[in-house]
Amino acid sequence: MLFTLKQVQSGEFREAADNWKLEKLYVDLASAKNKGLTPVEKKILRGLLCGYSPGEIADIIYKTSSSSSVRVYLSNGLYKYIEVMLYSQTSQQVKINHWSRVTKVLEEAGYKLTSTLPQQVAPTFIEKSHHPEIRQNFDWGEAVDVSIFYGRDKELIQLENWIIRDRCRLVSLLGMGGIGKTTLSVKLAQQVQHNFKYLIWRSLHHTPPLAELLANLLQFLAQEQDSEFILAATIHQRTTQLLEIFRKSRCLLVLDNVDTLLQPRTYTGNFRPEYEDYREFFQRICEVLHQSCLVLTSREKLKELAAIEGVNLPVRSWQLKGLSEVDCQEIIKAKGVTCSEYEWRLLVNRYAGNPLALKIVLTTILELFDGKVSQFLKHNLLVFGGVRELIEEQLTRISEAEKQVLYWLAVKQDILLLTQTAEEDLPPGMTKGELWETLESLVRRSLIYKHSTTFKLLPIFKEYLNQQLSKQNSLQTEVIPNPNPGKLSSSPKVTEA
């Protein structure tokens, strides 16, 4: 196993003594245990105080990726000793159910030597203008040009607060295709860049294997970290090396198009078999204590992240919606089309503020209708050409059950009240539990939106689905009579509206 940093080479986590009152902690825990801590217990405790996860501690102590032995020491020993010790000091019950809570409760109990936060996450904001001696290293990869950028002021303020003020370890930007996730990720990175020593922006559009991506990241990050750096052989070890750098220096890593790693035609958020190792990688980024941040963009929410995110947790997601009418008006002006206030409002609402869809339509208006929105609106055609391609690109990834529910919603005028849905009103062959599961998946794909208990389709998706239903119904009427009139199936090929 290859660990090049001093913390890993020693294998003893001796640096914990630099920041914690170790001897006092040993004595107090021994009192709670009624006998002294064993050398292994002390070593594991020091590892936790240095911010290592149980898996990483096992890697260093036992040279294995399995953390079962360390977790046994924690759950059957150290956690209980700490709980008993703190109760004897404060008469208040403290429950430790996760390794990352140990440093917090011990710091609150006064066992930390200096800062009010663990060293790995203490504020070390790097303002370039104030610290010219600190060299910043940025690698923007294939990041797009955002010199022309519309709106998103609210999103930028909130996301910056999450990253800088709340020290989130992972932030996901989610939304349908064309909504502006990539441009927002670049603009956000530009806005917060001076708070980081290292910044890397990478697109996963070409679906790089994780081993290759980690090698690329480490070669950039380690060039000043360690002149004798040796790239580890396995993905697990490379992730450990990356996390070491994430602890030591404040880094911002942006990974765009994460949805390209996900499996199509199944429920949302599942990795393709050849990219399953990304699952553990993202989980370790979320769980391990460090001072860096990973920003992801995706059309789909990752299933594992959905389970561990929260408004008060270091893992959060932002569902990106369409631009405001005012911001969309700026796009219309920049394109040079002519329209009244009523016309541009109608145009924006029909495409739900999707900037890419709007730009595609405006280009058609310029080329076919001399830039006059009124002439285009007379044809009452929402979905065509590039807009159709944008929709179909998204719909090709969904499962048959999701497809069935989308057509069902289109027929039912987009509205579904779950509390009022009787069994006979469900899609054919689907239970209420299956319907809820499918709706959750569609929401995570940004294909439908939810307000209270009401689910609706975006106008352009509704228009597209109804076009497909009408087309297939016409073909069926001309060729083969439908033996089951009124029955709606999961595929438009056999659907009656």
UniProtKB/TrEMBL annotation:
Gene3D superfamilies named in the record: P-loop containing nucleotide triphosphate hydrolases
One Pfam entry name: NB-ARC
Entry-linked SUPFAM superfamilies: P-loop containing nucleoside triphosphate hydrolases (SSF52540)
Record-annotated NB-ARC domain positions: 155-258
Listed Polar residues bias regions: 487-497
Superkingdom of the source species: Bacteria
Annotated stretches, region: Disordered: 475-497
Protein name according to UniProt: NB-ARC domain-containing protein
Organism (species): Floridaenema aerugineum BLCC-F46
Upper classification of the organism: Bacteria, Bacillati, Cyanobacteriota, Cyanophyceae, Oscillatoriophycideae
